[in-house]
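Lay summary. Proteins are chains of building blocks that fold into shapes, and those shapes determine what they do. In this project we predict the shape from the chain. Here is one chain we studied, written as its sequence of building blocks.
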Amino acid sequence: MTEPAAAPVEAAGERPHALRAVVLAGGLTFEREVSLSSGTQVVEELTRHGLEAELRDADAELLPGLAAAPADAVFIALHGATGEDGSLRAVLDLAGVPYVGSPAAACRLAWDKPAAKSVVRGAGAATPDWVALPHSTFRELGAGAVLDLIVARLGLPLMVKPASGGSSLGVQKVSRVEDLPAAMVSCFAYGDTVMVERYVEGVELALSVVDLGEGPEALPAVEIVPESGVFDYTARYTPGLTEYHTPARVPEDVAVRAAALAVLVHEELGLTDLSRTDAIVSPDGEVHFLEVNVSPGLTETSMFPMAVEAAGYDLGEVLGKLLARRAGSAR
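And here is the predicted shape, written in a compact code that computers can read:
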């Protein structure tokens, strides 16, 4: 009878190859400091789980550095255009560097909030009515006339936000028509196109999704209760100014629909690995899609880690599994 083959024996003193990850954070966007906080947290979590993790900025030294000392996989903790509009991911694809997260084309779609809303609405989900206009339109047609049409169509109050971007930068609630011009001017500081959206009163939710190899899974919803009533940049990143409840204090049927919306957004936009959808539950229980983030924040006040913990997972283990999957698929 043939003896079964013996398992390979490691040489004395030889250790299994430890996964080497490069965590990208920083960049030159308005969200640089938030990104560095996320990246530092990721490195700490990965190191705690025995992975070799190095924090690097997305600068001129990145590609030569990856060529000289290749990583098994890259984790993108960059926020803002560099990390979320697909451009960096397209370059990593050209260089053959595997990374955690959605592909470049899906990121471009998600980054464009009006385009993402159109796709999600086309898939049957609710989303507040909106209009997105570049600065040139106001300059050429006259801001007063255009703003009058917007208010006539969408009513008040309104949410004014950059058509692309994250961390709630430039986001303002406008309740009086006389405040709209100043809100628009402020918002244009963060991008050439502004999206004006009908304001929906209700419970704000952060809906995280992760795919560890068995398809996208919606994690418990995080309910967001900002002290000011508006979840802007200050409320988002200043400890104590916002209360979070995980799981969200919503009826079970609403929680189920919110989870279904998060997975629908993830799949319809072609996202992979992880995402976070922002939504509002109106008083009638309808869940309204607002936007989606392909590079969720991972700071101490970020909602993705809260959802991971509420699901009973360990954040470092989840991040490690995502990196291992990408590293394995590249071999």
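What the prediction tells us: Confidence is low (pLDDT under 50) at residues 1-16.
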